[in-house]
């Protein structure tokens, strides 16, 4: 029941029969908006008590709590009403199984299925997977060079570590890593452009940037700078 106490809207649990007094009360799934469902999940996550008077609890949330067994949580009420599946990005087991069959992230030499990743995760998450795949592929020669240098240093013994050859090897290894990093950055910039073109995200970013630019110009027209 909602009532005002000291200028604040308070609540208390009410009977399930009172749900008919609200719009959509005859259909449980219509009682919850996305904001109400997320607020209910937040209260459950932080263990907010449901039987005490708490400010700003919606009537729909109180109806779900009243419909639950006392030993059950508000999250179980959300599951019963189907709001969790309706507002949260849950995995589709069938689509996820097909994606795993087409692509194994632990195989760095394989090309990731870009279209399948975009369809399932969206373009920006797909860019992340493409980056990790390309980075793992480029790490193979760099790691191999590091292993060879470490083995050479261990085989030379303590006297060889302080020799001129060891210092030359360290300088050559640092130069090789620097060249490797520069080439990887150039390769990644090109791969980003190709990936954005294939997924269409470049056009969306361009349109978003154009909208922001137009909004900034309109603000300047409405608020011209004051003469100094």
Outline the secondary-structure elements.
Blueprint: E1 3-5, E2 8-10, H1 34-45, H2 59-67, H3 74-81, H4 83-87, H5 93-102, H6 114-121, H7 123-161, H8 164-199, H9 201-222
Antiparallel strand pairs: 1-2
Helix pairs in contact: 2-3, 6-7, 7-8
Key attributes of the depicted protein:
single chain; 228 residues; mainly alpha; two-stranded antiparallel ribbon; 65% helix; disordered N terminus
Strand percent estimate: under 5%
Shape field:
elongated
Distance between the termini: 59 Å
Number of strands: 2
Structural class: mainly alpha
Elements, N to C (H/E) = EEHHHHHHHHH
Q: What's the number of domains? A: 2
**Main pleated sheet:** 2 strands, antiparallel
What can you see in these coordinates?
InterPro entries: Anoctamin, Anoctamin_TM. Its main location: membrane. Residues 119-197 form the Anoctamin transmembrane domain. The structure is a single chain. With 228 residues, this protein is mostly helical. A hairpin with a 2-residue loop joins strand 1 and strand 2. It has a two-stranded antiparallel sheet with strand order 1-2. Helix 7 (123-161) packs antiparallel against helix 8. It has two domains: 3-87, no CATH class; 93-222, no CATH class. Mean pLDDT is 69; it is low at 1-12 and 50-57. The chain has nine helices and two strands; from the N terminus they run E-E-H-H-H-H-H-H-H-H-H.
Summarize the structure.
This protein is mainly alpha-helical. Helices cover 65% and strands 3% of the residues.
């Amino acid at each position: 029941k909602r009532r005002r106490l000291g200028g604040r809207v308070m609540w208390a649990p009410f009977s399930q029969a009172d749900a008919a007094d609200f719009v959509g009360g005859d259909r449980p799934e219509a009682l919850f908006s996305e904001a109400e469902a997320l607020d209910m999940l937040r209260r459950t996550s932080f263990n907010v008590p449901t039987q005490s008077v708490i400010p700003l609890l919606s009537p729909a949330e109180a109806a779900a709590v009243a419909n639950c067994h006392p030993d059950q949580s508000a999250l179980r009420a959300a599951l019963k009403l189907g709001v969790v599946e309706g507002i949260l990005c849950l995995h589709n087991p069938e689509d996820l199984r097909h994606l795993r069959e087409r692509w194994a992230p632990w195989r760095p030499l394989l090309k990731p299925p870009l279209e399948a990743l975009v369809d399932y995760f969206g373009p920006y998450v797909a860019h992340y997977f493409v980056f990790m795949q390309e980075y793992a592929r480029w790490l193979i020669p760099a790691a191999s060079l590091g292993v060879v240098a470490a083995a050479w240093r261990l085989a030379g013994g303590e006297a060889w570590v302080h020799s001129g050859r060891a210092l030359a090897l360290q300088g050559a290894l640092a130069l090789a890593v620097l060249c490797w990093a520069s080439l990887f950055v150039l390769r990644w910039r090109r791969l980003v452009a190709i990936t954005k073109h294939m997924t269409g995200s470049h056009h969306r970013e361009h349109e978003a940037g154009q909208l922001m630019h137009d909004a900034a110009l309109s603000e300047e027209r409405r608020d011209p700078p004051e003469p100094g």
